[in-house]
Specification:
The protein is mainly α. The chain is 85% helix and 0% strand. Helix 1 (8-27) packs across helix 3. It is elongated and about 75 Å long.
Length: 108
């Protein structure tokens, strides 16, 4: 993450580098494979637990555990795109701040 104590230009460069790395990861075949594996795991849980009526307390607990696993797997797929969006916004904000800072210096 970006160090808030750095000068703006350094924070911008660091955010741009982080964004570049995450976008590279998002386009990597390995990440696409992992997303496919995560989706298979989600699908398996939905097939096994999705529409069956619970027949015992143990089954209810097992189904709730599987729902938690499914939510965690979905979250794993969403973290990278969310982080990319966050960094894109941060980069744009830092660019504006750097330009404002440069404008303030030019007026002095």
């Amino acid at each position: 993450m970006v160090d808030q104590e750095q000068p703006l230009a350094g924070r911008l460069r660091e955010a741009q580098e982080s964004l570049s790395r995450l976008k590279s990861l998002d386009g990597h075949l390995g990440w696409k494979h992992i997303k496919g594996v995560l989706q298979q795991q989600i699908d398996n849980r939905l097939i096994n637990y999705g529409m069956k009526a619970a027949t015992s307390v143990e089954k209810v607990l097992e189904e709730q555990f599987a729902k938690g696993e499914t939510a965690g797997l979905e979250l794993a797929k969403l973290i990278l795109p969310h982080q990319i969006i966050h960094l894109e916004t941060e980069v744009e904000n830092l660019k504006r701040l750097v330009l404002d800072e440069q404008g303030d210096r030019d007026e002095s």
